[in-house]
Amino acid sequence: MTDTTFDEFVRQALPGLARYAYVLAGDRHAAEDLLQDSLVKAMGAWSRIRRDGNPVGYVKTIMARTNVSWWRRRRPSVAVSETLAATDTALAGVEHRDELRRALATLPPLQRTVLVLGFLDEAEDEEIASLLHRRPATIRSLRHRALQSLRRNLRIDELRSLDRAADLQETP
């Protein structure tokens, strides 16, 4: 990919980068803004990025850092329960995608970002810590709290579905 022009790179990588931005931002419009800002930053550094040989990884890093920067600036005025809709690839094999999306939407942005980087990108704690300017122990703590919250929320939804099913069976 060393001879690839920026336009060619964008044409090839855009669908995957758009899905990644959507998972990070939790909203289609915010994801579009995030992707656009990240590509503008990448275009400015294209000669260096192209030389390094991993432009997709570089743009994903830009997106993650930009997303963290955005929610840090707007944190006091933004509700925590933003909608998160993940891609089919990210959630392959998950039977109840809608419940998972709603449960993810209840997480604070930093916890959601840690889960995205850890599970979708398979990044190590040290890499996530470096990216988010936190200590690895903090990343583990954030992941632990996020997963506890997801388990709690998903279990509640699961119990509600079981209650509905039981009600349907009792009705003549």
Automatic annotation (TrEMBL):
Chain ranges passing through the membrane: none
SUPFAM superfamilies the record matches: Sigma2 domain of RNA polymerase sigma factors (SSF88946), Sigma3 and sigma4 domains of RNA polymerase sigma factors (SSF88659)
Pfam family, one: Sigma70_r2
Domain RNA polymerase sigma-70 region: 10-75
RNA polymerase sigma factor 70 region 4 type domain ranges (all copies): 98-150
Domain of life the protein comes from: Bacteria
Keywords on record: DNA-binding, Sigma factor, Transcription, Transcription regulation
Keyword field contains Transcription: yes
InterPro entries: RNA_pol_sigma-70-like (IPR039425), RNA_pol_sigma-70_dom (IPR014284), RNA_pol_sigma70_r2 (IPR007627), RNA_pol_sigma70_r4_t2 (IPR013249), RNA_pol_sigma_r2 (IPR013325), RNA_pol_sigma_r3/r4-like (IPR013324), WH-like_DNA-bd_sf (IPR036388)
Family: Belongs to the sigma-70 factor family. ECF subfamily.
NCBIfam families: sigma70-ECF
Full protein name: RNA polymerase sigma factor
Origin organism lineage: Bacteria, Bacillati, Actinomycetota, Actinomycetes, Micromonosporales
